[in-house]
Amino acid sequence: QVQLVESGGTLVQPGGSLRLSCSFSGDVFSRYSIAWFRQAPEKEREFVAAVKSTGGSTYYSTSAKGRFTVSRDNAKKTVDLQMNRLEPEDTAVYYCAAGHPITSSMYYASAYRVWGQGTQVTVSS
User: Fold this and answer.
1) How far is Cα 90 from Cα 48, in angstroms, rounded to an integer?
2) HEC assignment per residue over 54-92
3) Residue 54 pLDDT
4) Which of 46, 37, 124 minimizes the C-alpha distance to 89?
5) Gap between the Cα atoms of 100 and 106, Å rounded
6) What whole-number distance in Å separates Cα of residue 88 and Cα of residue 101?
């Protein structure tokens, strides 16, 4: 079955950069759209960014647009999230998710059927 493993989370200072990676196994990677979500303490899980399976179109939340970049490497079966100009409000557990959402559903957690275990990102001085 499909498995996802996130890595790269750590403590970083405000204004810094961090690169998260999501490794995929168990099926044909190129058939899946991959998204990043995050969940801060006592908050709901929220969409961050996604990259579509076919064509590689990318999608971003308002807070991520202009600061974060999502990219996929079909040969390595990975999806990276490059995060720049990090703010304390970006502190959360970051999850990657895989699925076959239609375009209008790319932003919704319910559209993804497989989730990783998450990686903690803490932005603090």
Assistant:
1) 10
2) CCCCEEECCCCCCCEEEEEECCCCEEEEEECCCCHHHCE
3) 78
4) 124
5) 9
6) 30
Position 118: which residue type? G
Residue for token pair 């979500």: 37
Q: Largest Cα–Cα distance in the chain?
A: 41
Report helix, strand or coil for 31.
helix
The count of other CB atoms within 10 Å of the CB of residue 75 is 8
Q: Tens digit of pLDDT for each residue in 90-115?
A: 999 999 999 999 888 999 999 999 99
Strands 92-99 and 33-39, bridge-based pairing:
antiparallel
Cβ-based neighbour number of residue 95 at 10 Å: 23
**Whole-angstrom Cα distance, residue 15 to residue 24?**
29
Question: Residues 39-84: pLDDT tens digits?
Answer: 999 999 999 999 999 778 999 999 999 999 999 999 999 999 999 9
